[in-house]
Design goal:
147 residues, mainly beta, 4-stranded antiparallel sheet, 3-stranded antiparallel sheet, 7% helix, elongated
Length: 147
């Protein structure tokens, strides 16, 4: 299929000036993700299509959650690129975790190009009942509100 693209030559020159040429590995720009709270845990979903599951690394160090992955393209040997628009290389994303996350019980799965990380809320950070006593009053229990 042939299409007329009046900006093709300008794009080619811009790519060459910026160091991007057709057929070379380009660094991924970002790892898109969603983060939401569901009951007593948070769920982080990161899009990593085409990533080798063995290259995915999820770790927590000193309150920082780090997600890393790698996507490779075929070797440049014996390949004549016609178009090269998919990013290849290493992806990395870091998030600061609050003290309210139970870092010992974080879990992760990778299905259909989506990395899902479950971040449970620590017991100490969950709402609880607090008894209140006063002079001459009987004890009252107030339930903490949930946000």
């Amino acid at each position: 299929m042939l299409r007329f693209d009046p900006f093709h030559d300008i794009d080619t020159v811009a790519r060459q000036l910026l160091g991007e040429t057709v057929g070379t590995t380009r660094a991924p720009r970002f790892m898109p993700m969603d983060l939401f709270k569901a009951g007593d845990h948070y769920v982080l979903n990161a899009d990593l299509p085409g990533v080798d599951p063995g290259s995915i690394d999820v770790n927590v160090d000193n309150g920082t959650l780090t997600l890393q992955a790698r996507r490779s393209l075929p070797s440049d040997e014996h390949v004549q690129w016609v178009a090269s628009e998919r990013f290849a290389g290493s992806y990395m994303r870091q998030l600061s975790l609050s003290d309210g996350i139970d870092t010992d019980n974080i879990s992760a799965t990778y299905n259909d190009g989506v990395l899902s990380v479950t971040l449970p809320i620590a017991e100490k950070a969950q709402p609880r009942r607090i008894s209140i006593t006063g002079a001459g009053d009987s004890a009252k229990t107030i339930e903490a509100g949930k946000s």
